Amino acid sequence: MSKILASVDQRTKLVGENRLELLMFRLGSRQIFAINVFKVKEVIPVPDMNKMPGSHHNLRGVTNYRGKSVPVIDLAQAIGIRKRQPDKCDLNVIITEYNRSVQGFLIGEVMNIVNTSWGDILPPPSSAGRNNYLTAITHHEEDGVREIVEIVDVEKVLAEIIFYDVKISEELLEDEVTERLRGHKVLIVDDSSTARAQIRDTLKQLDLEILECRDGLQALNLLKSWADEGKKVTDEILMMFTDAEMPEMDGYRLTAEVRADPRMSDLFITLNTSLSGSFNNAMVEKVGCNKFISKFQPDLLVVAAQERMRQKMEEG
Q1: What are the DSSP E strand ranges found in 229-306?
Q2: pTM of the model
Q3: Backbone angles phi, psi at 229, to 5 degrees
Q4: Rounded distance, CA 66 to CA 157, Å?
Q5: Coil, strand, or helix at residue 199?
Q6: Directed axis angle between helix 251-260 and helix 216-228, to 10°?
Q7: Running along the chain, 316 residues long, what does each successive block of 10 average in pLDDT?
Q8: Which one of 35, 113, 132, 277 has the fewest CB atoms closer than 10 angstroms to its CB?
């Protein structure tokens, strides 16, 4: 157990190689859940917490973590898992960083860390319904037993607790540019339906038409289908916003594939992700994204769209 916890902060080198490492855990049931290690700052025993009057029912309390007040969310309760009452020794808290905020998630037993490929990460089956709390599923085999691992849509959990305002600052809007944006199509690529909705609701205020894909491979196939039909990809869409972490193909690999295909290599690509900014700045330069935005910042989405339109206007 101590080796698992000690290694969490050092498991980030595979991001960008279409690979990831998952921290697997249980929530007081037999099911195995996971989140990307890259989002994890630390795993700690359950700390002392103060309950905040009037707080969301999924918020277990607030704790002091390295000198800062951090909310702790009961993950099993948040995603609707019926759990047995675990012993306190079975409980842990995962400290994570999403969308520029730090929060803890109360979980049960921490199992281990597995190294896998995004190609082995699949979208949840359609039979799971639209209201499930999963972005993807994969499989893990240990001692000859093969089990399903469910990857939690943390952004959806947080969106039900934290209010994300999609309002755009009017002083950012450039009349001539926004007028030219109307009717153009933008492709959003993200495995989280919540994240796609946040971007969609923001960009629709600019009267942009929105196309959506749930993973990098689906997006690449769409782009290639246009190119195969003899269409110019940049005539079909103004730009693409893509997440970094997605089933089957991550956003870095998607960008690299687009840049390698001369039929679409000039597509304007904005990486929009909850991963850390310093790391993504390096990855953006490596794979050739035009812009990086840390989730969720509506004004910066607008800035990116206007920047792309100004570029298009200059191209004539």
Answers
A1: 239-242, 269-273, 291-294
A2: 0.80
A3: -85, 5
A4: 24
A5: helix
A6: 20
A7: 43 58 90 89 92 90 93 94 64 88 92 87 75 87 86 89 86 92 96 91 96 95 98 97 88 92 96 68 75 88 95 86
A8: 277
164's CB contacts (< 8 A; 6+ apart) are 198, 296
Q: What is the CA radius of gyration of the chain?
A: 20
Do residues 152 and 121 lie in contact, with contact meaning Cβ atoms separated by under 8 Å? no
Residues for the chain: how many in total? Answer: 316
Question: How far is Cα 120 from Cα 136, in angstroms, rounded to an integer?
Answer: 10
Half-sphere exposure of 222 (CA within 13 A, CB side): 18
Asked if residue 33 lies in contact with residue 108, where contact means CB atoms within 8 angstroms, the answer is no
The tokens 């916003």 sit on which residue? 241
pLDDT at residue number 29: 85
Region label for 180, one of left (φ > 0), alpha (ψ between -120 and 50) or beta (otherwise): alpha
Q: Cα separation of 39 and 276, whole Å?
A: 8
Distances (CA, A) of 231 to 254, 277, 300: 19, 34, 29
- Look-up of token digits 């993200």: 190
Cα-Cα-Cα-Cα torsion 246, 250, 255, 256, nearest 10 degrees, comes to -170
